[in-house]
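FAQ: What does the model actually see?

It sees only this:
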Amino acid sequence: MAPDPWFSTYDSTCQIAQEIAEKIQQRNQYERKGEKTTKLTVTIRALLQNLKEKIALLKDLLLRAVSTHQITQLEGDRRQNLLDDLVTRERLLLASFKNEGAEPDLIRSSLMSEEAKRGAPNPWLFEEPEETRGLGFDEIRQQQQKIIQEQDAGLDALSSIISRQKQMGQEIGNELDEQNEIIDDLANLVENTDDKLRTETRRVNMVDRKSTSCGMIMVILLLLVAIVVVAVWPTN
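And it is asked to produce this:
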């Protein structure tokens, strides 16, 4: 498995910090003896500049790894803490370099910090989830990519379902529009039929009234004829 570029850079950066601390201590020893320290000072300045550039590179690598999901959020936090510790050491080393003639305890602590950290258990591992415990960085990255792919597939399926539901909704809406048009046509047909029924009913009533009037007239005429017949009929 290829080494992680972030940790390769981190290890080399820690070595530079260690070398700076040793040379600052050596410079202070020379000064106490009255010896010249010009060469050491130039070397320390160059190492401090190199340390600054390495820390900037670590920040950039960490940002890209987190933003592209190459590492877990837990691993990103762990690396950020290591980086914060390096930034603090850089600041202390720079202060020690400018404080000429002093023999601060921070130099010794800087010299010992690397060894202490290598021998101490990593507290971050106790918080590591069971799924990633014992896996290398490449394996964790592959696992993350698989999870992301599964999430993307789930989102695609959800999008497909929503699209089908939208299409079904549109089809139901179109069918409702057609049904409403049919109902409107039926309502118009019923209204027209009702009007025709009213018209025919009025005609029937008029015919009925006319038939009744004609019958009365015939009865009256028959009565008049009977009266006339009786009147002119000779009596014995």
